Amino acid sequence: MERKETEAQAQAAVFDWARWQQSKYPALKSMYHAANEGKRSRAAGANLKRQGMKPGVSDICLPYAAGGFNNLYIELKVGFNKASEEQLTFIDTINGIGGRAVIVYGSDAAIEVITAYLEGDIGSLDIKSDTYPARKAKLTDKVNEKRFIGFCGTDCRACDNMGCLGRKNVV
Which CATH architecture has domain 7-45+56-136? Predict the structure, then answer.
């Protein structure tokens, strides 16, 4: 049963769990949150962007190679929240360069994903459209369909025309 939690509560729960599990999984010592959200003045936002802040960066990063992936990024959501276009683009980028990025709903699911990743078994989870649990994929399916379709109308994941200029939002 899913608990009712805000994204901030879910994230705190994940990092509380990670602190308790560091002796079992030492890689958790390197896990961090990229604090790139929040309200700022236009000048402060521009300054942070010059310093490297990027919109769409996932909430949690585990810079540890496991299960054939270079790293793990988790975009943490709760309830019926959806990933933004910028977040989906970032997820596509990570998944396209050897990492694993997933939209995950709730702290319990995030802990399942992190544990499976650390044990080299993330492929055993029912992840659909880069979303876990799979039943939440309906929240991003429409957006996911669009991000893989080129201007020619072909699904870029199944197309072998690497010189296509019609690709959009695909790494």
Answer: 3-Layer(aba) Sandwich (3.40)
For 77, counting Cβ atoms within 10 Å of its Cβ (0-12 exposed, 13-18 middle, 19+ buried), the class is buried
pTM reported for the whole predicted model: 0.79
- Strands of 131-132's sheet, edge to edge? 32-33, 60-62, 72-77, 100-105, 131-132
Locus of tokens 């992190």: 114
What residues does each domain of the chain span? 7-45+56-136
Higher pLDDT, 40 or 138: 138
As a whole number of angstroms, the distance between CA 95 and CA 99 comes to 5
Task: Choose among 155, 160, 152, 133: nearest CA to 144.
Answer: 155
Contact between 140 and 88 under an 8 Å Cβ cutoff? The reply is yes
Q: 153: alpha, beta or left, given left = phi > 0 and alpha = psi -120 to 50?
A: left
Q: What pLDDT shows up at residue 147?
A: 57
Place of tokens 């959200």: 37
- For 157-169, the DSSP string reads TT---TT-S---S
Residue 49 pLDDT: 73
